[in-house]
Structure formats: structure tokens, C-alpha cells
Amino acid sequence: MRAIEISRYGAPEVLRETSRPDPVPGAGEVLIRVAAAGVNRPDVLQRRGLYPMPPGVSDLPGLEVAGTLVGGDIAATGLKQGDRVCALVAGGGYAELCAAPAPQVLPVPHGLTDIEAASLPETFFTVWQNVFHIAGLKAGEWLLVQGGSSGIGVAAIQMAKAFGATVIVTAGSADKCAACVALGADHALNYRTQDFAAEVERLTAGRGVDVVLDMVAGEYVAREVKCLANDGRIAIIAVQGGTTSTVDVGAVLRKRLAITGSTLRPRSVAYKGELARALRERVWPLVEAGRIKPVIHQVFPAAQAAQAHALMEASTHVGKIVLTW
Ligand SMILES: NC(=O)c1ccc[n+]([C@@H]2O[C@H](COP(=O)([O-])OP(=O)(O)OC[C@H]3O[C@@H](n4cnc5c(N)ncnc54)[C@H](OP(=O)(O)O)[C@@H]3O)[C@@H](O)[C@H]2O)c1
After folding, report:
1. Is residue 18 within 6 Å of ligand 1 at its C-beta?
2. Hey, which of 43, 46, 130, 150 would you mutate to test ligand 1's pocket, going by the most ligand atoms within 8 Å of its Cβ?
3. Which DSSP state fits 110?
4. Choosing a second label site near 211 at 20 to 30 A (CA), which of 83, 186, 198, 272?
5. Which residues pair with 298 in a beta bridge?
6. Distance CA 99, CA 113 (A)
7. Alpha-carbon distances, residue 210 vs 73, 136, 160, 188, 250 (angstroms)
8. Which of these, 95, 133, 90, 93, lies nearest to 277 by C-alpha position?
9. CA of 240 to the centre of ligand 1 (A)
10. For every residue of 182-235, which 3-state class applies, written as one string?
11. With a 6 A CB cut-off, is 260 part of the ligand 1 pocket?
């Protein structure tokens, strides 16, 4: 099969088309003929040598794919040979064929193209896990999303709105803020010109937000502690702003706050399978009803994966970047 490999750690150009043996699905895995694969920021980190794959996982990048079921333990998915599916994988997505654990495979939501379906798994699993499962966002609560125009952000905005929350986001330009509002965000703050903690206090009339989805961390955490309501929760999913912060722990106690962090990739198949079940039951119907939409910024042929990574690193995109075969 054709695949895109990381020939050595470095700049986008280290991504190279290559020929690899077809993957052999293991017990409880299926084989997918990949039509499209989503690009995620963790792929960029892996390419730079900052996010090694878990033991036993393909060295090829790529955490999500869409295509057709062609082999392996298809019965375990409840689907049939030739069905269109999308899947969360721990690696190996940038290839014409990809093995995926059956519990992490979902049918393509009715009405979606392969490109749209490939853009869903990594961000939808991550947002569901962090915002709803870990932080327990409820209808009527306030959510602050740092990085609202990211792949993760566009999923978080739409899911939180669909489940009845009020959403504030941060983004790095006026255009990105406008895009977030168009997707349903109630308020968008330009983090380059506005202090999100002061703005949250103003927008919530001093009450604060209930949940923060944080992909920045660093000194943001201290400011998030300031702008959380009583019983507030922070779910940290990345440390783009650094790994250290000086936090007012007195406020954590007084307001009964919870600060959590997680990475999805090393979690067990059973855990990811639970997330898949919840998504299929709670979120897929909203996607099929058009209430939650894939947001595709640009599509590249897989051979141009380097350009796709360069675009992601330029951070001019809103939503998802997708590769096709
Ligand atoms: N823990 C997990 O399980 C998990 C899973 C998937 C992804 N992630 C992480 O989630 C993040 C988003 O992933 P993605 O694929 O959606 O990437 P992406 O589309 O490239 O998004 C990165 C985002 O970070 C925002 N950002 C950077 N600095 C910021 C700051 N100081 N304040 C507010 N926003 C800031 C950028 O906003 P501007 O462009 O406007 O500057 C951009 O929207 C990545 O850091 C990724 O590693 C974690």
C-alpha cells in the first residue's frame, strides 16, 4: 500500500510518500480501505519528535480515517463488508489501508462524505471525553473553549450548544472570532487583544464559567482559576503555552474547583469503545440532523501531507484539514 511516513523528525518536508506492506488486522480489529484521513495537531507533534506513538502502534502518523470495511473481524462492529465507516486509531491513518480496533469504528453518519467523516473521530472523541465525560458539562452551564477555531474548538462549540450550554471561546484574530460565532458560540474573545479572564467576569456578571476546555495551559491555568464559578472544572488537553503555572490554590479550595488533564491516544480500546458508543447514541443523531456539522478548512491529496502540516503550523485554518487518496 501507499503510505505517508515520517522519514525523520523535523519540518513538514520530512513527510514522504512510501510503500509499506498492507497492515494485518489483529484479533478484534478490522481493515479499512482509507478514502480520507484527518490531520490533527498531535500528528505535527509526532512529526517533530514530541509525541511518540504508544508501544505496538504503527509508526505512520494519522489518528482518524474514513473509508470502507474490507477485512478483519467485521462481525465485531455489527456492520458488513463494504460498509462506509470512520474510526479513531492510535496511529497508521496516513495510509491506503489501516487496521482499527472494532470498538473504535463507527458508521459514517448518513449524508456525510468520506472527507467529512474523516474529520470527526479524533476531535469528537476528545471533546466528548473531556467536556462531557470528565468535566460533566450540563445544559444551562457556561463553557469557555480556548482555541475556538481549532479542529477541537469547532467540535466543542457545536456539541456544547447542541446540549444546551452557553459558550465563550478565545481565538487569535477577528476573522476566527467571527467564524466561531457563525458556528454558534455565544461570545468570542480575541486572545491577542482581550484579557479572557476579565471578559469572562464581565460576560457572566461576575459568576464565572462552569467548565474550561484548555489546550494552552501555562499561565492560562491561573487566569482560568480566577474566572471559574463555584464547583468549576478545567479539562486540560494540551500545553501549547507551557507546562507550569502559579495557581491560587486558595481559590481552588474556596470555589471547590477541579483541574484535570488527559491524553486520549494511550487509553485502552475498551475506554475508547465506551466513548464511541456514547458518540453513536448521543452525537451521531445530531450530526445526521445537521445540527452539528463537520467544518472542513482544506483538503489535500495525501501525497501533499507536508503542505497540509505546513498549513496547520501556520495556524491560518478554521476547523479541519483532511488528506485523501
Ligand atoms: N489531550 C488529548 O487527548 C488531545 C487530543 C487531540 C488534540 N489535542 C490537542 O488539542 C489542541 C487542538 O488540536 P487541533 O488538532 O484541533 O489543532 P489546531 O486546529 O491546530 O488548533 C490549535 C489551536 O490552538 C490555539 N491556540 C494557540 N495558542 C493559543 C492561545 N494562547 N490562546 C488561545 N488559543 C490558542 C490556536 O488558535 P489561533 O490559531 O487562533 O492562534 C488554534 O486554534 C492541540 O494542542 C492538540 O495537541 C489533545
Report:
1. no
2. 150
3. T
4. 272
5. 321
6. 21
7. 42, 10, 12, 17, 18
8. 133
9. 7
10. HCCCCEEEECCCCCHHHHHHHHCCCCCEEEEEECCCCCHHHHHHHCEEEEEEEE
11. no
Which domain, by its residues, includes 210?
Answer: 124-261
Domain boundary among 228, 261, 294: 261
| Final residue in a domain of this structure, among 235, 261, 287 | 261
* Atom 9 of ligand 1: nearest residue by CA position: 238
Domain co-membership, 15 together with 62: yes
Please give the pLDDT value at position 53: 87
Residue 312 CA to ligand 1 centre (angstroms): 10
**Global pTM?**
0.98
Ligand 1, atom 36, lies closest to the CA of: 147
| Region 288-312 average pLDDT | 98
Q: Please report, for the domain that includes residue 237, its CATH number.
A: 3.40.50.720
Average pLDDT along the chain: 98
Q: Which amino acid is at 41?
A: R
Which residue reads 489546550 in cell numbers? 215
For range 273-302, the mean pLDDT: 98
Question: pLDDT digit string (tens) for 28-67?
Answer: 999 999 999 999 999 999 999 999 888 999 999 999 999 9
What CA–CA distance (Å, rounded) separates 294 from 280? 15
pLDDT at residue 111 is higher than 90: yes
**Residue of minimum CA distance from atom 45 in ligand 1:** 238
Q: What is the pLDDT of residue 193?
A: 98
